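Hi P.,

Sorry for the delay on this. The queue was packed all week, but I finally got your sequence through. Input first:
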Amino acid sequence: MQVSVQAKGCRERAANCTRGPPHTPPQEDLTITAKLHSALVGVFALVANAAEAASLSGPVDFEMVAKASQIREPVEIASPGGNMILSMAIAEMFKERGISVRVTGWCASGCAMIAIGSGNCTVARSGRLVLHAPYVTVGGNVTDLARAREQNRVQWQDWMQKAGVPSDLVEATFQAFRQQYELTPYAMKRVGCRLE
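Then the structure:
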């Protein structure tokens, strides 16, 4: 008596059934699978890149301007500050491009000017915005120093008001000249920054 055994992939009698090579899908199935895999890898790469923001740190100087000029996506920033004119230029560049700025650490002086002036600022829980009136380093006599200080003060004050900083905060910053004026969460909201 012969017994018929139905094995996976084998429809013959047990005596004549041998296990062959594993089943391979037709070539067109592999092509579809490869395309799907490639598409998923691409999507994950886009998501990963979108989640990672560009980063600016260190002093606001010509090197930071060069790096900022290449940025086309959201940027995270933390810096002790630096050159006032360069800070204004970076802020204008970000504002024109619609680049959002996220403050992730200590962001003082020119860094705060970049964040506030971008028009699209978010302050992380770890972020701090600190302002002070501009410092003037001019050689010469007392008259030259006073003239340069007043010129920088007017330029800085005009720019801060143009960026949307309320006049009482600008004045508080001048009162803290040579000292740091750290913005409270309420003041950060008043200058247009969102808080995380």
